[in-house]
Amino acid sequence: MDFPISRGIGARFEYLAEAGSTNDVLVTAASGPDAAAWPDLSVIVTDTQTSGRGRLGRTWLAPSGKSLAVSVLLRPRPATGPLPPNRFGWFPLLAGAAMTLAVRSVVQAAAPGDDDEPRHEVALKWPNDVLIDGYKVSGILSELLPDASGLCIGAGLNLALDEHDLPTLTSTSLMLVTGAVPNPDAVLAAYLTELRTLTASFLAADADPVASGLHAEVTALCGTLGTAVRVELPGGHDLVGTAVGLDPDGRLIVEDQTNGELQAVAAGDVTHLRY
Questions:
Q1: Which residues fall within 8 angstroms of residue 134, CB to CB, at 6 or more apart?
Q2: Looking at residue 19, what DSSP letter applies?
Q3: What stretches of 111-213 show up as alpha helix (H) in DSSP?
Q4: Residue 172 CB neighbours (<10 A)
Q5: Residue 129 has what pLDDT?
Q6: What angle do CA 158, 160, 163 make, to 5 degrees?
Q7: How many CB atoms lie within 10 A of CB 192?
Q8: Would strands 59-60 and 269-272 be described as parallel, antiparallel, or unpaired?
Q9: In this predicted model, what pLDDT tens digit does every residue of 10-34 receive, in sequence order?
Q10: What is the average pLDDT score of the chain?
């Protein structure tokens, strides 16, 4: 498979016919003896990933040739100095926003709807899943390099899965939504372009999510906000309430339905509740 458009966006672009995990491959390469050969915005992609990983240690499997697994290396360097540790938490949200924008552009081009309302809703589920009409089409997993010199952002995108291929009842694919097999290069190029643009703006504002507009962008794209949610917190506790916003560190602010208190959630498995 060739990716002529995407190759022109990544600083280094490698297509693998098969990979266990593109994140594992990229993390190993970018932190090994040849790390200098893997600059910022290096990309590894495959359409056959055999040992993919999702959030919370879940496995991620898809039939060969019907999905994309892509990992992007970021070595963020704001103009004023090293990236503050608390700003790294914004990159999973940034990547989720980039994938949401890319998927939205593909879906709206294929099924535009009318002038007032798009035919399909494409939204970000906090922290970094992309949903079409409430069904998951993409998930993102970010990992710091062992020496903290950068991070690897892995994304899985369901391209051409049919009803029998879907991993869960709450999944979908671009083909099922649009009625046609999408061009993998066009979709990937859209994602890489959005990722590059959002990252550049974030770093140009010294990694300030508010000044860069990233906080506003993620807030606008996040379908979790304003929704009743159940958050499975680390330790086995559940928080049920309404997601009301994002704090300056990108944490989800939930109004607890039992006492009305606001709680900031840094990590947890979120379920959108529909009554």
A1: 121, 170, 272
A2: B
A3: 174-178, 184-204
A4: 20
A5: 95
A6: 90
A7: 25
A8: unpaired
A9: 999 999 999 999 999 999 999 999 9
A10: 91
Instruction: Tell me how far apart the alpha carbons of residues 173 and 235 are, in angstroms, rounded to a whole number.
Output: 33
Indicate the pairing of strand 135-144 with strand 122-125.
Answer: unpaired
Question: Alpha carbon of 227 to those of 76, 172, 183, 245: distances in Å?
Answer: 33, 21, 33, 10
Measured between alpha carbons, how far is 8 from 15 in angstroms, rounded to an integer?
13
> What is the C-alpha separation between 177 and 133, in angstroms, rounded?
9
- C-alpha triplet 83, 87, 53: angle, nearest 5°: 110
Q: Which two tokens stand for residue 62?
A: 């898809």
Distances (CA, A) of 191 to 10, 84, 106, 134, 228: 11, 25, 10, 20, 29
At 240-259, the pLDDT tens digits run 999 999 999 999 999 999 99
The 262-265 sheet, strands edge to edge:
262-265, 252-256, 238-246, 228-232, 269-272
Judge whether 241 and 200 are in contact, CB under 8 Å: no
Q: How is residue 76 written in tokens?
A: 């963020």
